[in-house]
Amino acid sequence: MGYDIERFVGYVNEGLLCSICRDVLEDPLQAPCEHAFCTACIHGWLVHHSNCPEDRQVIDVSLLRPLYRYMKNDLNRLQLHCRNREYGCEMVCSLESIDRHERECEYSQIPCSNAGCSVQVERRNLDGHLAVCEYRSRECPNGCGYTILSAEDTQHNCVAELRTELELLRSEMICRVEEAKHEMESRLDSQRRHMVQKESILQNEIEELKSQMSRMMSDVRSLMAAERQHRQELEQAELEKREL
Protein backbone atom coordinates (compact mmCIF):
# COMPACT_ATOMS: atom_id res chain seq x y z
CA MET A 1 0.00 0.00 0.00
CA GLY A 2 1.15 3.52 -0.77
CA TYR A 3 1.17 6.76 1.20
CA ASP A 4 -2.32 8.17 1.84
CA ILE A 5 -2.75 10.98 -0.68
CA GLU A 6 -4.64 13.03 1.94
CA ARG A 7 -1.39 13.52 3.84
CA PHE A 8 0.28 15.45 1.01
CA VAL A 9 0.49 19.21 0.71
CA GLY A 10 -0.44 20.59 -2.73
CA TYR A 11 -0.94 18.84 -6.06
CA VAL A 12 0.42 15.33 -6.68
CA ASN A 13 1.13 14.36 -10.28
CA GLU A 14 -1.00 11.45 -11.53
CA GLY A 15 2.14 9.63 -12.64
CA LEU A 16 3.27 9.40 -9.00
CA LEU A 17 0.20 7.43 -7.95
CA CYS A 18 0.15 3.65 -7.73
CA SER A 19 -1.96 2.14 -10.52
CA ILE A 20 -3.41 -0.37 -8.05
CA CYS A 21 -4.05 1.33 -4.68
CA ARG A 22 -4.25 4.88 -6.15
CA ASP A 23 -2.17 6.28 -3.29
CA VAL A 24 1.25 7.92 -3.62
CA LEU A 25 3.92 5.38 -4.60
CA GLU A 26 5.75 3.63 -1.76
CA ASP A 27 8.95 1.72 -2.63
CA PRO A 28 7.99 1.99 -6.34
CA LEU A 29 8.58 -0.37 -9.25
CA GLN A 30 7.88 0.22 -12.92
CA ALA A 31 6.69 -2.20 -15.61
CA PRO A 32 7.97 -2.16 -19.23
CA CYS A 33 4.71 -0.38 -20.18
CA GLU A 34 5.86 2.46 -17.82
CA HIS A 35 3.01 2.07 -15.34
CA ALA A 36 4.26 2.39 -11.76
CA PHE A 37 3.20 0.51 -8.65
CA CYS A 38 4.03 0.14 -4.97
CA THR A 39 6.23 -2.94 -4.55
CA ALA A 40 3.75 -4.58 -2.17
CA CYS A 41 0.80 -3.84 -4.49
CA ILE A 42 2.31 -5.23 -7.69
CA HIS A 43 3.73 -8.33 -5.97
CA GLY A 44 0.30 -9.03 -4.51
CA TRP A 45 -1.34 -8.48 -7.92
CA LEU A 46 1.05 -10.82 -9.74
CA VAL A 47 0.26 -13.66 -7.35
CA HIS A 48 -3.12 -14.00 -9.10
CA HIS A 49 -2.52 -12.23 -12.46
CA SER A 50 0.15 -12.12 -15.14
CA ASN A 51 -0.61 -8.75 -16.72
CA CYS A 52 -0.54 -5.03 -16.00
CA PRO A 53 -3.66 -3.86 -14.12
CA GLU A 54 -3.78 -0.72 -16.33
CA ASP A 55 -3.33 -1.89 -19.93
CA ARG A 56 -3.38 -5.71 -19.50
CA GLN A 57 0.01 -6.18 -21.13
CA VAL A 58 1.78 -9.34 -20.03
CA ILE A 59 4.36 -8.67 -17.29
CA ASP A 60 6.45 -10.77 -14.93
CA VAL A 61 8.24 -9.96 -11.67
CA SER A 62 11.59 -10.26 -13.45
CA LEU A 63 10.57 -7.41 -15.82
CA LEU A 64 9.92 -4.89 -13.03
CA ARG A 65 12.51 -2.14 -12.67
CA PRO A 66 13.13 0.81 -10.33
CA LEU A 67 11.37 4.08 -11.10
CA TYR A 68 13.03 6.50 -13.55
CA ARG A 69 15.40 8.83 -11.74
CA TYR A 70 13.51 12.02 -12.62
CA MET A 71 10.26 10.47 -11.34
CA LYS A 72 12.03 9.26 -8.21
CA ASN A 73 13.33 12.79 -7.62
CA ASP A 74 9.84 14.27 -8.10
CA LEU A 75 8.47 11.70 -5.67
CA ASN A 76 11.10 12.45 -3.03
CA ARG A 77 10.40 16.21 -3.22
CA LEU A 78 6.72 15.84 -2.38
CA GLN A 79 5.75 17.42 0.95
CA LEU A 80 3.51 15.58 3.41
CA HIS A 81 2.31 15.69 7.00
CA CYS A 82 3.69 13.39 9.69
CA ARG A 83 1.44 10.38 10.32
CA ASN A 84 1.23 11.53 13.94
CA ARG A 85 -0.61 14.69 12.91
CA GLU A 86 -3.75 13.51 14.75
CA TYR A 87 -1.72 13.35 17.99
CA GLY A 88 -0.44 16.91 17.59
CA CYS A 89 2.66 16.75 15.38
CA GLU A 90 2.68 19.67 12.93
CA MET A 91 5.80 18.62 11.01
CA VAL A 92 5.66 18.78 7.21
CA CYS A 93 8.68 17.38 5.39
CA SER A 94 9.71 15.78 2.12
CA LEU A 95 8.82 12.18 1.34
CA GLU A 96 12.55 11.45 1.21
CA SER A 97 12.96 12.33 4.91
CA ILE A 98 9.55 11.37 6.32
CA ASP A 99 10.63 7.92 7.50
CA ARG A 100 13.59 9.33 9.43
CA HIS A 101 11.36 11.96 11.07
CA GLU A 102 8.65 9.46 12.02
CA ARG A 103 11.21 7.11 13.62
CA GLU A 104 12.19 9.96 15.93
CA CYS A 105 8.87 11.83 16.18
CA GLU A 106 8.01 12.86 19.75
CA TYR A 107 4.33 12.09 19.06
CA SER A 108 4.93 8.49 17.95
CA GLN A 109 3.14 5.85 20.00
CA ILE A 110 5.76 3.49 21.48
CA PRO A 111 5.41 0.61 23.96
CA CYS A 112 6.57 0.93 27.55
CA SER A 113 10.03 -0.61 27.98
CA ASN A 114 9.14 -2.31 31.27
CA ALA A 115 8.61 -6.07 30.96
CA GLY A 116 4.97 -6.98 31.43
CA CYS A 117 3.58 -3.51 30.70
CA SER A 118 1.33 -3.33 27.62
CA VAL A 119 0.79 0.45 27.70
CA GLN A 120 1.72 2.51 24.64
CA VAL A 121 2.56 6.18 25.13
CA GLU A 122 3.86 9.05 23.05
CA ARG A 123 7.64 9.13 22.93
CA ARG A 124 7.69 12.56 24.60
CA ASN A 125 5.69 11.18 27.56
CA LEU A 126 7.67 7.97 28.02
CA ASP A 127 9.86 9.25 30.87
CA GLY A 128 6.81 10.44 32.80
CA HIS A 129 5.11 7.07 32.35
CA LEU A 130 8.20 5.12 33.39
CA ALA A 131 8.30 7.10 36.65
CA VAL A 132 4.83 5.87 37.67
CA CYS A 133 4.55 2.57 35.76
CA GLU A 134 3.39 -0.25 38.02
CA TYR A 135 5.86 -2.53 36.25
CA ARG A 136 8.86 -0.28 36.90
CA SER A 137 11.72 -1.88 38.78
CA ARG A 138 13.88 -0.46 41.55
CA GLU A 139 16.36 -1.66 44.13
CA CYS A 140 14.96 -2.88 47.44
CA PRO A 141 15.09 0.02 49.95
CA ASN A 142 15.94 -2.38 52.80
CA GLY A 143 19.37 -3.06 51.37
CA CYS A 144 19.08 -6.69 50.25
CA GLY A 145 20.19 -5.63 46.75
CA TYR A 146 17.21 -7.15 44.95
CA THR A 147 15.49 -5.41 42.06
CA ILE A 148 11.74 -5.45 42.63
CA LEU A 149 8.65 -4.30 40.74
CA SER A 150 6.38 -1.76 42.37
CA ALA A 151 3.54 -4.26 42.10
CA GLU A 152 5.57 -6.70 44.21
CA ASP A 153 6.42 -4.29 47.04
CA THR A 154 3.91 -5.81 49.48
CA GLN A 155 5.06 -9.37 48.73
CA HIS A 156 8.81 -8.77 48.87
CA ASN A 157 10.60 -10.47 51.79
CA CYS A 158 14.32 -9.79 51.97
CA VAL A 159 15.13 -12.83 54.15
CA ALA A 160 13.13 -15.20 51.95
CA GLU A 161 14.67 -13.77 48.78
CA LEU A 162 18.19 -14.08 50.17
CA ARG A 163 17.52 -17.64 51.30
CA THR A 164 16.22 -18.49 47.86
CA GLU A 165 19.29 -16.96 46.23
CA LEU A 166 21.54 -18.83 48.69
CA GLU A 167 19.87 -22.11 47.78
CA LEU A 168 20.26 -21.34 44.09
CA LEU A 169 23.94 -20.52 44.56
CA ARG A 170 24.40 -23.70 46.61
CA SER A 171 22.73 -25.80 43.91
CA GLU A 172 24.79 -24.11 41.22
CA MET A 173 28.02 -24.75 43.17
CA ILE A 174 27.12 -28.42 43.70
CA CYS A 175 26.45 -28.75 39.97
CA ARG A 176 29.78 -27.10 39.13
CA VAL A 177 31.65 -29.35 41.60
CA GLU A 178 30.01 -32.42 40.08
CA GLU A 179 30.88 -31.23 36.59
CA ALA A 180 34.49 -30.61 37.64
CA LYS A 181 34.61 -34.04 39.30
CA HIS A 182 33.26 -35.79 36.20
CA GLU A 183 35.66 -33.87 33.98
CA MET A 184 38.63 -34.81 36.19
CA GLU A 185 37.57 -38.46 36.30
CA SER A 186 37.21 -38.44 32.54
CA ARG A 187 40.71 -36.97 32.16
CA LEU A 188 42.17 -39.53 34.59
CA ASP A 189 40.49 -42.36 32.71
CA SER A 190 41.84 -41.03 29.45
CA GLN A 191 45.36 -40.74 30.88
CA ARG A 192 45.09 -44.22 32.41
CA ARG A 193 44.08 -45.71 29.06
CA HIS A 194 46.91 -43.84 27.38
CA MET A 195 49.45 -45.14 29.92
CA VAL A 196 48.16 -48.72 29.56
CA GLN A 197 48.46 -48.39 25.81
CA LYS A 198 52.00 -47.00 26.09
CA GLU A 199 52.95 -49.80 28.52
CA SER A 200 51.68 -52.38 26.06
CA ILE A 201 53.68 -50.78 23.25
CA LEU A 202 56.85 -50.66 25.41
CA GLN A 203 56.37 -54.28 26.47
CA ASN A 204 56.11 -55.32 22.82
CA GLU A 205 59.26 -53.35 22.02
CA ILE A 206 61.11 -55.03 24.92
CA GLU A 207 60.05 -58.46 23.69
CA GLU A 208 61.20 -57.56 20.20
CA LEU A 209 64.58 -56.40 21.57
CA LYS A 210 64.93 -59.63 23.54
CA SER A 211 64.19 -61.59 20.39
CA GLN A 212 66.79 -59.60 18.46
CA MET A 213 69.34 -60.06 21.26
CA SER A 214 68.70 -63.80 21.25
CA ARG A 215 69.26 -63.98 17.51
CA MET A 216 72.44 -61.94 17.85
CA MET A 217 73.78 -64.22 20.59
CA SER A 218 73.02 -67.24 18.42
CA ASP A 219 74.87 -65.63 15.53
CA VAL A 220 77.86 -64.84 17.80
CA ARG A 221 78.02 -68.44 19.01
CA SER A 222 77.88 -69.68 15.41
CA LEU A 223 80.73 -67.33 14.46
CA MET A 224 82.83 -68.42 17.44
CA ALA A 225 82.28 -72.10 16.55
CA ALA A 226 83.23 -71.40 12.94
CA GLU A 227 86.36 -69.56 14.14
CA ARG A 228 87.42 -72.54 16.33
CA GLN A 229 86.84 -74.89 13.44
CA HIS A 230 88.91 -72.65 11.19
CA ARG A 231 91.71 -72.47 13.79
CA GLN A 232 91.75 -76.24 14.15
CA GLU A 233 91.97 -76.64 10.42
CA LEU A 234 94.92 -74.24 10.32
CA GLU A 235 96.71 -76.12 13.12
CA GLN A 236 96.16 -79.43 11.31
CA ALA A 237 97.48 -77.93 8.10
CA GLU A 238 100.54 -76.64 9.98
CA LEU A 239 101.26 -80.10 11.40
CA GLU A 240 100.97 -81.68 8.01
CA LYS A 241 103.29 -79.08 6.61
CA ARG A 242 105.93 -79.86 9.27
CA GLU A 243 105.75 -83.58 8.65
CA LEU A 244 106.30 -82.98 4.97
From TrEMBL:
BP GO terms, sorted: regulation of canonical NF-kappaB signal transduction
Domain TRAF-type intervals: 101-144
InterPro entries, A to Z: Znf_RING, Znf_RING/FYVE/PHD, Znf_RING_CS, Znf_TRAF
Single GO MF descriptor: zinc ion binding
Entry protein name: RNF41 ligase
Keyword Manganese among record annotations: no
Species, as recorded: Sterrhoptilus dennistouni
Domain of life: Eukaryota
SMART domains: RING
Pfam families named among the record's database cross-references: zf-C3HC4_2, zf-TRAF
Domain RING-type: residue ranges: 18-56
Coiled coil: 192-243
PANTHER family named in the record: RECEPTOR-ASSOCIATED FACTOR, PUTATIVE-RELATED (PTHR10131:SF157), TNF RECEPTOR ASSOCIATED FACTOR (PTHR10131)
Zinc finger (TRAF-type): 101-144
UniProt keyword annotations, A-Z: Coiled coil, Ligase, Metal-binding, Zinc, Zinc-finger
